């Protein structure tokens, strides 16, 4: 076999393999999308979760709790600002 013929066969085999993988992945994406649509259509909707209300009033908290809320919200705000794209 000549080198050019061997190279052509290798490229043909590569193209065939890549084409097969492309077709397989396309079929996989389409089937997953269709199954997701079927599940969304026939699955029952989730019931809303009832939360228990606390016995203490929501507006009054100890000074330590209020300070902790401020510190946590400030930390979250700084983290989000630093890690933006």
From TrEMBL:
Its main location: membrane. The keyword Acyltransferase does not apply. It is found in: Cell membrane. Its EC number is 7.2.4.2. It is a single-pass membrane protein. One of its GO terms (cellular component) is plasma membrane. The keyword Transit peptide does not apply. One of its GO terms (molecular function) is sodium ion transmembrane transporter activity. It catalyses: oxaloacetate + 2 Na(+)(in) + H(+) = pyruvate + 2 Na(+)(out) + CO2. The chain crosses the membrane at residues 12-34. Its cofactor is Na(+). Keywords: Cell membrane, Ion transport, Membrane, Sodium, Sodium transport, Translocase, Transmembrane, Transmembrane helix, Transport. InterPro entries: Na_pump_deCOase, OadG. GO terms for biological process: sodium ion export across plasma membrane. It comes from the Bacteria. Belongs to the OadG family. Catalyzes the decarboxylation of oxaloacetate coupled to Na(+) translocation. Heterotrimer of an alpha, a beta and a gamma subunit. This is Probable oxaloacetate decarboxylase gamma chain. It comes from Vreelandella zhuhanensis.
